[in-house]
Structure formats: structure tokens, C-alpha cells
Amino acid sequence: MVRTPSKNITLAEFLMLPETKPASEYINGEIIQKPMPQGKHSTIRGEIISTISSIVKSKRIARVFPELRCTFAGRSIVPDISVFTWQRIPRDENGEVANVFQAAPDWTIEILSPDQRTTKVTKNILHCLNYETQMGWLIDPEEQTVFVYIRNQQPVMLDELEALLPVPDFASELRLTVGDLFGWLLE
């Protein structure tokens, strides 16, 4: 994660800047560039997107977005995976998915990269939970651990292979264990 030294910049000024690759986030007046995803991160992200989408998209329950900029409550963040319930997906005048999302996702999922600080990612998840987010996952591939954050509840730490991962109510058909999730790294 790279902190870009800058004078105090407003959120509006940040949003006028060109996008960076990897994405930069605006948090408390600072611009922080996310680390470039590596193999484990990319593998888990791709499999989660496919797995969740297969359950919620065809029934128009929710939609999964990779690396989507979400700007709300004074921050502009880019979760690894954002899931929005169908009725909360911003639409443009043509009824298509909008380009700008000015809301917290219903479910935010972060996958820790080797150079990423757990505290920064956790702060983003907790920020989301203070708004409309129902649940957040923080996946640590190196420790093979998943931290689950549920609004108004104590976080849960799961590292036993047979442990079933909690999911938001709208994705209740999803049955995924810690072993399933980290097993993707062996395929």
C-alpha cells in the first residue's frame, strides 16, 4: 500500500484525478494506493465472484462487482469485491448499471495482500458496516483465516477447514467452508 504525499485534498478533488492502477482510495483526506493483487489474491477473488454470482445473479437477488469504487460518507474506497442487492444497484437513465456508486455495498469482501496492512482494511470494513453494509469478510490467504464482520455483532474468526462461512441473508443458499475457499489455491 502506497501513501501518496499530498496537501490536504477534498473528496471532490480526489474524484477528479485520473484513476490509478492499482486503484487508489481516499480515506480521511489521504490518498492511499492499494497493492497490486498477486496470485493467491487473484485466485480467491475470481472464485468468490464466480461462486456468489452463480447463486444470486440469475435470480436477480444481488450482483457481484470486482474492484468497484464506492464513494460514501466522506470516503472513496475500492473493495476487492462488492456485492449489492438488486434493488440497491445504482442505475442510469437507461436502466443500465450506473458508472458511479455513491453507497456502501451490502457485502464487502477484502482479500489481504502480502504488503497490505490488516488495520487499514479492517477500518474500511468497519466504515462500511456503519452505513448500509450487512457483512464484511477479511480473507487472509497466508494465515488461511477469514474474519467475518456482521453489523452490530462481535467479529468472528474462522480457520478450521470445516467451518461454514456466514453469509448475508440474501445469499443464504451459499454454502462455503473455509476449506472450500482455501482449497481453490490448490486447484
Observed structural traits:
single chain; 187 residues; alpha+beta; 6-stranded mixed sheet; 3-stranded antiparallel sheet; 11 strands; 22% helix; globular
Task: Write up what this structure looks like.
- The chain is an alpha+beta fold and 187 residues long.
- Helices cover 22% and strands 25% of the residues.
- The strands form 3 sheets. The protein has a 6-stranded mixed beta sheet with strand order 4-7-8-9-10-11, with helices on both faces. A 3-stranded antiparallel beta sheet has the order 1-3-2, with no helix packed on it. It has a two-stranded antiparallel ribbon with strand order 5-6.
- Helix 3 links the parallel strand 8 and strand 9 (135-140).
- The model has no long low-confidence stretch (mean pLDDT 94).
Could you tell me the number of beta strands? 11
Q: What is the N-to-C order of secondary-structure elements (H for helix, E for strand)?
A: EHEEHEEEEEHEEEH
Summing up helix and strand content along with how strands pair, one would put the structural category as alpha+beta
Mean pLDDT: 94
Radius of gyration, taken over Cα atoms and rounded to an integer in Å? 16 Å
Across the major sheet, the strand order is: 4-7-8-9-10-11
Helical proportion?
Answer: 10-25%
**Basic shape:** globular
Which percent range describes the beta-strand content?
25-35%
Uncertain runs: none
